Amino acid sequence: MFLLDMEYASQTLHRFVGRGLLFCGVFLLAACETTTIRPPQVDMARFVPAPESQRVIVQPKLKYLVRQDGYEYCARITGIKITPTSRPMACAFWNVRRKECTIVTPLVTGYNYVGHELRHCFEGAFHD
Description:
Blueprint: H1 2-33, E1 61-67, H2 70-78, E2 91-95, E3 100-106, H3 111-123
Parallel strand pairs: 1-3
Antiparallel strand pairs: 2-3
């Protein structure tokens, strides 16, 4: 009788733990879907390059700087302040006379930020 009760208790414990792990797994997966930072509206549409006559620099020489202090550096360049909910993820600055453009990012970035800044190299301040 005692062995039967222990076996029943063990099965009940396994079911309880299993259901608890399943519940935690579902909860964590749902949390991963929650996004609080969204890309700028200009990045939500397909990019169509401007005609050469409308570009700031037709064929820019590109420089790409990856900086440890990328967020702070871009905050100084752009004037966008770093707040608890926002920070400049990358930036670009250009010299029309020398036909040069420099893209700056922090150590870890996404290809979408690099592409966005590359567009600035051709078109200048297209969303300001």
